[in-house]
Amino acid sequence: MKIYCKMEIGRGKTAIEDRVLIGSTVLAGGSYQAEAPDSDSPLCIAVADGVGGNSAGDVAAHIAVNSLLSFQLPEDIKAEELLQIIRDTNMHIIEESRRVSFLYNMATTLSGLCRVDRKWLLFHVGNTRVYTWSSPYLSQLTTDHSKARELRLMGMSDEEIERTGNATAITACLGNGDMVFAEALRVEDVTSEVAAAQMVLLTSDGVHEFIPREIFERSLQSANDIDLYLSQALSCARQNGSSDDLSIILVPVLLPLMQVEVLCIVFSNFLFILFCRTIRI
């Protein structure tokens, strides 16, 4: 199984504030491909989007993904233990922002997946996203912690939300000077959702806010060259007006051994039933 990533700095920016974690590698731009470790080994994939309206979003995003790397996640970690690790990371970001003046109120989103003991744990806070794709549909595993989502739930249209000036505001994150902003942080087991998928997709809001879902779904169906597909996705976001940092990660999901065994049993039963019907005829 290969993991693919592409990142691009926002227009007019001097530093990218997105960070991506793939296994033991922290990325801050460019293209990346890597073979995933075998299914028995822990694997963490994450995207963090430093909050641009605050100071040092890039530092907050780097701390967030680097903490997952430095903790050396055990193979049997539980959801509540991973939740505590991220809460501790949040406290570290807040403490650093109070200690160093130019880091004041730094903040970041964080979304990703950890594969441990053949299970997939989803962690999320903010408006970065994790999707699964099973042809022809894209399913969002995360819930946006954003003002736009709250306004949509109140019945406002996208045009009305745009006029409020709150379309890009987030309602939860790591950091921002107070633990209260991370209260929406969640960690949950999504093993069944990932096992049923053909691909897993992670994006920062500079990508998904500017590419309609139906475009994502249609283009994934014809994506033979994944590296080219990622380049085209970033180009599409730019053409649709995104000036933000762009990050996209794509993981083609292989059937786990247990799932293959189940399929073999089902197929064997099917052949047995077919044989019995043939004999009866």
Structural features, described:
- With 281 residues, this protein is an alpha+beta fold.
- The protein is built from 9 helices and 14 strands.
- The protein has helices spanning 57-70, 79-99, 147-153, 158-164, 191-195, 205-208, 213-221, 226-239, 257-280, and strands at residues 2-8, 18-22, 25-27, 30-35, 43-49, 107-108, 110-116, 119-125, 129-134, 137-140, 174-175, 186-189, 199-203, 246-252.
- The chain has a 6-stranded antiparallel beta sheet with strand order 4-1-14-13-9-10. Strands 3-2-5-7-8-12 form a 6-stranded antiparallel beta sheet.
- Helix 1 packs antiparallel against helix 2.
- The longest helix is centred in the last third of the chain and has 24 residues, at 257-280.
- The chain starts with a strand and ends with a helix.
Briefly say what this structure is.
This protein has 281 residues and is of the alpha+beta class. Helices cover 37% and strands 26% of the residues.
Protein traits:
281 residues; six-stranded antiparallel sheet; alpha+beta; single chain
Question: How would you summarize the topology of this molecule?
Answer:
Layout: E1 2-8, E2 18-22, E3 25-27, E4 30-35, E5 43-49, H1 57-70, H2 79-99, E6 107-108, E7 110-116, E8 119-125, E9 129-134, E10 137-140, H3 147-153, H4 158-164, E11 174-175, E12 186-189, H5 191-195, E13 199-203, H6 205-208, H7 213-221, H8 226-239, E14 246-252, H9 257-280
Helix pairs in contact: 1-2
Shape: globular
What is the number of strand segments? 14
Strand percent estimate: 25-35%
Note the gap between the termini.
45 Å
- Mean pLDDT across the residues is 86
Low-confidence stretches: 255-281
Measured as a percent range, the helix fraction is: 25-40%
Order of helices and strands: EEEEEHHEEEEEHHEEHEHHHEH
